[in-house]
Write a structure and sequence with these properties.
With 87 residues, the protein is an alpha+beta fold. It contains two helices and four strands. The model has no long low-confidence stretch (mean pLDDT 80).
């Protein structure tokens, strides 16, 4: 195996910014930001938008979007064409 071609595999803290939850794992990702973990050591911090702490599949809390409003917006946008005329 060639030396110095593989990224450094290290411990990293991933923080879910929407749920204010963090976990320590190993990754090749790097960051200029650091955080002091529960063990007193400092680790690189990777901020994520969604994790198992905030994802609707894992939390059971699903957000319902206004589908009717989206359809009306689409129809209004394409009303000038022949897209919705029956043949």
């Amino acid at each position: 195996m060639k030396s110095d071609i593989h990224p450094k595999y290290q411990q990293v803290v991933f923080k879910d910014v929407s749920a204010d939850w963090a976990f320590l794992s190993r990754s090749t990702l790097t960051s200029k930001e650091t955080i002091t973990w529960e063990d007193g050591k400092e680790y690189p911090l990777i901020k994520v938008d969604i994790s198992s702490a905030s994802h609707p599949f894992y939390t059971g809390k699903q957000k319902f979007l206004d589908a009717a409003g989206r359809v009306e917006k689409f129809q209004k946008k394409f009303a000038g064409g022949n897209y919705f005329k029956k043949k």
